[in-house]
């Protein structure tokens, strides 16, 4: 039997499933998503899932705000159980970045985001358990928090299925098939599927799929570890989500009295493009992460479990590539999220579907995220970037 589809999406993470849902609900025809392992098998199942609007670029802050509103109303918009926990978000920076924080907070307020710049004294008042060591200023977003990568991905997938999308699990896309007039299909472990439209949302594997058809998406897979620590007895209520850009860690409350700890520096991981197996953090790295928590919240904290590890798909400017691959008709890319794509998944699904179906986008212009920006020497830059690029 000949397999065909109107649109094929490669990758069953939060990005691919969000795009599949948006395309299916907008009547895009036969929407087929292909996932080689299982839904949320990659970064989406292991993410820190921090949902913040603190970005140094207005377009990204606009996208993050739009997405946060979806997370806040997830059951109504996507379906399933609520996924968002509002804790507030603090970005802690040292004195050299204080002016940039103030400028970014002003930018956020202009966009309608509730945000404040806090002096160390204000911060001590807000979160008295924090060590203020090295902090010049903090940005505070009371409406931010976190969600759950696995539940969000499965909810997008359920919603896509309800709208008629066909999600095929265990199907490995081996190559993209391209002819003189553009995309013709994908060659998979299940045979050839013909289509004139493919969206590649395959995380760090996107680079290899595109290279197979002569496109260069500069991307480095960087493995990041997450540790789980139990907060000390008597710690009290959970802390806000914190990006400690002074020491390079993020802290996110988890179930009960546990905190999820990761690193904010994008390249602060081990790099191995050939590793696909489920990686496990070393004991040394887990101890380092736990120490990072104790430095900011002095007191005891004990490691729980073995932690988790997964790859960031880092591009040179640490921003994704979104939109059409200009050289090949019918080929679209949504990858390179560089460790901050979960929080953008709602808006990326909307924007990609709009671009594919209408050729334009309304909320923001996706041209900023074009693949060719790297070859053109036009990486995405911010007016008030921080001295060290940090994520979370
Ligand atoms: C440790 C860690 C912490 C993070 N913390 C945060 C955070 O706090 N907030 C935030 O916003 N973001 C965070 N991120 C980033 C965020 O999780 C990712 O940007 C997001 O999950 C990317 O989703 P994705 O769908 O693009 O990729 P993935 O979830 O990696 O999905 C890609 C999918 O494609 C499949 N695939 C690959 N190749 C093929 C193929 N050839 N055929 C078929 N299927 C294929 C894979 O199996 C995988 O399921 C974090 C990431 C990590 C690793």
Structural summary, described in words:
The chain has 392 residues and is α/β, with parallel strands linked by helices. It folds into two domains: 3-46 and 150-218 and 317-373, FAD/NAD(P)-binding domain; 85-145 and 220-314, D-Amino Acid Oxidase, Chain A, domain 2 (2-Layer Sandwich), CATH 3.30.9. It is built from nine helices and 22 strands. It has helices at residues 14-25, 58-72, 74-77, 98-110, 120-126, 149-162, 206-211, 283-296, 345-358, and strands at 3-4, 7-10, 31-35, 50-51, 85-86, 89-93, 116-118, 137-141, 145-146, 166-169, 173-179, 182-188, 191-194, 198-200, 220-231, 241-244, 249-253, 258-263, 270-271, 301-314, 321-324, 331-335. The strands form four sheets. Strands 6, 7, 8, 15, 16, 17, 18, 19 and 20 form a nine-stranded mixed sheet that branches. The chain has a six-stranded mixed sheet with strand order 10-3-2-14-22-21. A four-stranded mixed sheet has the order 1-13-12-11, with no helix packed on it. Strand 21 and strand 22 form a beta hairpin. Helix 1 (14-25) runs parallel beside helix 6 (149-162), helix 1 (14-25) crosses helix 9 (345-358) and helix 2 packs across helix 9 (345-358). The mean pLDDT is 95. It binds flavin-adenine dinucleotide (FAD). Residues 10-16, 34-37, 41-44, 46-50, 149, 172-173, 201-203, 205, 209, 224, 226, 262, 310-312, 335, 337, 339-343, 392 line the site of flavin-adenine dinucleotide. Flavin-adenine dinucleotide is lined by residues 10-16, 34-37, 41-44, 46-50, 149, 172-173, 201-203, 205, 209, 224, 226, 262, 310-312, 335, 337, 339-343, 392.
